[in-house]
Amino acid sequence: MMDIKPHFIEQGEGFPLILLHGNGEDVRYFVHQMEPFSQHFRVIAIDTRGHGQTPRGDAPFTIRQFAEDLQGFMDAHEIDKAHILGFSDGGNIAMIFTMTHPERVEKLILNGANLNASGVKKGIQIPIEIGYRIAKLFARKSPEARKNAEMLGLMVNDPNMRPDELKKIQAPTLVVAGTNDMIKKSHTRLIAKSIPGAKLAILPGDHFVANKNPDAFNEAVLSFLLRQ
Questions:
Q1: Of 98, 99, 152, 224, which residue is 20 to 30 A from 64 by alpha carbon distance?
Q2: Nearest Cα residue to 109 out of 94, 89, 99
C-alpha cells in the first residue's frame, strides 16, 4: 500500500502515456507536451513524491522508491501497461521501473537521464555536491535545509546504476538529449548503447529541450511511439 496519493493531470484517451518530470519540478514541466501527445494517447503526468502537489510521505526519498510509487500509481489506476517518458530524474525513475517491472512498459523514452553523478558535466555537478554538503550540515536544525538536502541528494547518490544492468530493458527505447545538455554526450551514448536496440536522438537545445524546443522534441517522441 502506498503511504501517499500522488497528484496527477490527465488528458486524452487511448493507450496510456505516463510523463515523469525532473528533480525539483512538477507536472507543469510538460506544458508543451500534454496537448500534442493527447491527440494520440491518454497522457498522464504525475508529480513525484515530495514534488509539486504530491506529499513527501514517510518512505525513503530515493529514485528506487519513486519507481515503486509508479507501480503503486499504475496499480491504483488499473493501468496494466503504458508508454513511459521520463525527463532527467524522471528518466532515472523510468529506467529503474522498466528494469524491475518490464511487463508494465510498452515503449520507453529517456530524456536527459544518467546512471550516476559522473554522467553530469563537472561544472554542473560540483556546485550540486557542495550545495548538498552544506544542506546536510543544517538539515537537523532546518526543515528547509532537510528538504534541500533530500532533493540534492537524489543528484549525488542516485540512481547509481551500472551500464550492464541496462541489458534488462527489453522495451523499445528512445534516448533523447540536447546538443548542449548538462549530461555528457558520451554518457548519453553509453546509455543508448547499453539498452538493446535503443535509438538515440540528439536535438538542438540544452537539458530542458522538451520545454524549450518542444516542436523538435514532440516530433521525435511521436514518430517513435507511433511507429509500429
A1: 224
A2: 94
- In CATH, the number for domain 8-116+161-226 is 3.40.50.1820
What are the two backbone dihedrals, phi and then psi, of residue 110, each rounded to the nearest 5 degrees? -110, 120
What's the pTM?
A: 0.97
14/199 Cα distance (integer angstroms)? 24
Look over the chain and give the mean of its residue pLDDT values, rounded to a whole number: 97
Query: What is the CB neighbour count within 10 angstroms for residue 64?
Result: 16
Q: What percent of the chain lies above the pLDDT cut of 90?
A: 98
End-to-end, the C-alpha distance of the chain in Å comes to 36
CA dist 211 and 88 (Å) reads 12
**Which tens digit of pLDDT belongs to each residue from 85-96?**
999 999 999 999
Contacts of 145 (CB under 8 A, 6+ apart): 135, 136, 137, 138, 139
pLDDT in the model for residue 1: 62
The ranges assigned to domains in the chain are 8-116+161-226, 117-158
- Amino acid in position 28: R
* Contact partners, residue 57, CB within 8 Å, separation at least 6: 2, 3, 4, 49, 50
Residue 210 has pLDDT above 70, yes or no: yes
